[in-house]
Design a protein that fits this description.
Blueprint: H1 15-18, E1 24-26, E2 31-33, H2 49-53, H3 69-80
Antiparallel strand pairs: 1-2
Protein name: Ferredoxin
Domain 4Fe-4S ferredoxin-type: 1-29, 31-64
InterPro entries: 4Fe4S_Fe-S-bd (IPR017896), 4Fe4S_Fe_S_CS (IPR017900), PSI_iron-sulfur_center (IPR050157), YfhL-like (IPR047927)
Length: 82
């Protein structure tokens, strides 16, 4: 699954630079994750870096974008051209 940032986000700015796919951007009120770019860091790291670094634990799985590990790996390959 892709991840999403909930309204508990405090706009601390640590998640955006941590994302290797540039899937995180500043939204109107909180940061947002583009599900077309989010691979949960599959292909880059063992765990999602935004989740690891988030100080308020506001980045759960997005139930509207369910994906398997194979789906995420295929997306990683498409994004990176590998």
């Amino acid at each position: 699954m892709a991840l999403l940032i909930t309204d508990e986000c405090i706009n601390c700015d640590v998640c955006e630079p941590a994302c290797p796919n540039e899937a995180i951007s500043e939204g109107d009120d909180i940061y947002v994750i583009d599900p077309d770019l989010c691979t949960e860091c599959v292909g880059h790291f063992d765990e999602p870096q935004c989740v690891v670094i988030c100080p308020v634990d506001c980045i759960p799985h997005d139930p509207n974008h369910v994906e398997t590990e194979n789906d995420l790996l295929a997306k990683y390959k498409r994004i990176t051209g590998q």
